[in-house]
Amino acid sequence: MTSANIPASSEQPLWVPSAARLADHPMTHFRAAAAEWTGLPLPDHDALHQWSIDDRAAFWDLVWDFCGVEGDKGERLLVDGDRMPGARFFPDATLNFAENLLRISGDDDALVFWGEDRVKRRLSWDDLHALVSRLQQALVAAGVKVGDRVAAMMPNMPETIAAMLATASIGAVWSSCSPDFGPRGVLDRFGQIEPTVFIACDGYYYAGKTIDIAPKLAEIVPSLPTVRKTVVVPYIGTAEASAATLANGVTLDAFLAPFPVAPVAFAAMPFAHPLYIMFSSGTTGVPKCIVHSAGGTLLQHLKEIHLHSGVGDGDRMFYFTTCGWMMWNWLVSGLAAGATLLLYDGSPFHPGPEILFDYADAEQMTFFGTSAKFIDAVHKSGARPIETHDLSTLKTMTSTGSPLAPESFSFVYEGIKKDIQLASISGGTDIVSCFVLGIPEKPVWKGEIQGPGLGLAVDVWDEDGTPLARGKGELVCRKAFPSMPIGFWNDADGSRYHAAYFDRFDNVWCHGDFAEWTAHGGLIIHGRSDATLNPGGVRIGTAEIYNQVEQIPEVQEALAIGQDWDNDVRVVLFVRLRDGAVLDEALARTIRDRIRTGASPRHVPAKIIAVADIPRTKSGKIVELAVREIVHGRPVKNQEALANPEALALYRDLPELA
């Protein structure tokens, strides 16, 4: 292997799937169906993947049938398949996204909700149908039509999912963020897309505190002139008072009051009809408005959730996410696979690091999705759920948001559960899904993502566009796929969309991740390409540094940037230390030695500086680019996109960097 972070290939895998597990896995049944469909032997997953990119039309056609998509497929499967952008999947098809997520009825749980340790609720499938029905009627009465936008500033709670489904059922377009966004951050997003209805909570709970957002709503709503109704959803008990202060405000109860429960009507929409508008993080300017299609999102999510993740009828699926992160949109699609969704809102460490494992135990969770930072934080807390919780139902754990450190891989198997598929996954808001993720029949190797998704011609290229069997380069996708964005909002000629992904390599998607193939056919993501460090002209991924530094007990977390210095670039490492730890010469030497031996001498920072906080986005990603701008004396344009913008001040005019 080429990465110093990855052990020699003689090391044993952390986990190997059992024959019993594979025998009943959806991916196994799908491969058998593909072999029968094509007449090809398809003896293993690699053969299946090769077929899926060689004949994308037949592959996605089979995904549609195998996953039971409701809709009219139409005659043509793929038109202009060699154009990127420009390829059209199922151009004659019609379907309704919400109909595909509401196929089940009855008294079984559809949604379970925990709001920290304050609120516990559950909705059956029939309850969910009833709420969607009334919301649909209310939205239509409020003037929402096909193609109109409904925007929400909501916690990850049942009403949010029901409102999204009601919006999609009538062919309108959904966009959401979380209630911890500041007014400027909300307006930078929703101000661009001109929503007809705005849905917000009255407040939320975080780390045991109750946060009333009425003052924020009073600032936001008057600046959204296209909004005809602002619906305030009760959560902390102040909805009536909050709605009364808004010119077009109404509580959820009053919004629904005129409408009885009736069967939900599902408008048939084209495959490429807009479903979601999602936003780039916006840390380097006003967020890009990325428009995703109903059909592309549905097919891609069913492939990832049902086939790759093994989620199906009766599974109980959890992802720790807010409504401002694409993993919320991904989680919601679990309904289409027949899963019960386990929703959580608030701090994942309140009242302690065991709360999400309490949830897994109590609700017999089968799929646990979270972030790399959460796993690292549980590890550093000293918690050992393997000893304290019954996780016997848990089959799969996924991690995303940032690269999962090799030591975190080990902790999952040593401290959470031995027999579990740990799938590090990576993709983005740009594709509302994953490029690389878990492969059910493959072993889990420490520090490695198992492989590319079916139907995705993923590769690693050098700067000249040459494929790299070994070594680090740009993560690309060589062929079009259904969940590519329709485009960007208000980008009539497509120039901004093209510039974002296709300027680097003609007719090839360049994702902006710095990646590497492994000897096992897996991948390692070394961080974002635009955050790579270039000392002496050698490209270094920041994740390679973090993997080493964050194993040191005194270090809570770290952030690395390249600082322009003496006609070159030098590596600067910022560390947030544990309480009581001090960055003295001994600790600095330990950090440098660890990086030198675990990564390489080129990774060793020229400067190590202790800081009290590390700035991050609302979804928890550290913002290396914003810190780099501050260190170089340049303005950060959109600090509202950050969860803790005040932390940036810690990096301004540091004497150590003068």
TrEMBL record:
Enzyme class: ligase
GO molecular function, one term: ATP binding
CDD domains according to UniProt: AACS
Keywords carried by this UniProt record: ATP-binding, Ligase, Nucleotide-binding
Pfam families: ACAS_N, AMP-binding, AMP-binding_C
Keyword Iron: no
Occurrences of domain AMP-dependent synthetase/ligase (ranges): 106-480
Sequence ranges assigned to domain Acetyl-coenzyme A synthetase N-terminal in this UniProt record: 46-100
Domain AMP-binding enzyme C-terminal: 549-621
GO biological process: lipid metabolic process
EC number: 6.2.1.16
Alphabetical list of PROSITE patterns matching this protein: AMP_BINDING
UniProt cross-references to SUPFAM superfamilies, sorted A to Z: Acetyl-CoA synthetase-like (SSF56801)
PANTHER family membership: ACETOACETYL-COA SYNTHETASE
Family note: Belongs to the ATP-dependent AMP-binding enzyme family.
NCBIfam families listed in its UniProt record: ac_ac_CoA_syn, PRK03584.1
Protein name, entry field: Acetoacetate--CoA ligase
Species for this entry: Kaistia nematophila
Lineage, uppermost ranks: Bacteria, Pseudomonadati, Pseudomonadota, Alphaproteobacteria, Hyphomicrobiales
